[in-house]
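dumping this here before i forget
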Amino acid sequence: MSVDLPIYQISIGHIFFNVGHFGIANYILGGFQDFVSAEKDSQREYVVSALREDLDAANFNIVLSSEHFSSRLLTQGCVDSLSELLSGYDCSIVCYVRRQDEMILGGYSTAVYYGRREKLSIDEAWAGNPYFDYMQFLPLWENAFGKENIIVRKYGRSEDGEWDIRRDFLEVLNVPIELPEEGLVENASLDFAEVETLRLINQSLPSFSSDNRLAFERAQVVRGLIRPFLPTGKPLRSLLSWREAKSIMDRFADSNAELERRYMVPGALADWASFATAKRTSRDRRAASRSSQTLSDLAAMIAALGEELRQVVESRETSRGNS
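structure:
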């Protein structure tokens, strides 16, 4: 199934420029959410009026994209509200599904980059958790928009490394756009060494959950400065043993089978039964235990160094602005 979709470009200064559509989810949820600033929350009504103006003025289709549509709109009422907001327009819902053992690692990597301090626990991927269980939220969208308008695609890189979600999405939409081979990869996951080192550094930095928004934003500058110098090592999947990965996938086996049966072609998720995880030996765990205090001391030092670097960069930018 494909949807013809001419290009829709947002001009600089538009409410959605360089921000995305998470403001729409904020509006539907009806109250200040932790994924928007107080300033952006104050523009809640304007966000929706701007969307309606765009929809009415455009003589072509528009893509709305936000991870918060699937992670925050978790009741039938919320999804129905979005459907009502878009009433009068033909809508197709494109959802990418990713195997759950990769989901937990990707989510963990992102959380650490935003300040998480706790170690990874496979218990976070519990059966019925809508973040991992697609059959917990896809039926909500089917009820609101119709099953015939639901397009489910498998997220995953091919063995030859040719798969690209941007190209796959454009293929679904039947949009002939040439994309550069490199240079557009953002939000790439940290590897095993990077994520664990940064998690230790986070013990000395404010996190996303901090009440002090300015302190968190400054901490993000520090993390950005530090990231290129983090030690690299094994792939991120090394955080999970073969048994842990299998345990996670077993929890969602029935749900994934129903997902494939209802929304995909037979065999679409056949490779989700395989596991490519790196085993950690007891020697690795003992070495990690012995070095934990040294790493903690090093992490505190790097965090302090990063803060100094941030101040230097900020001072230089201020000087340039005054010159």
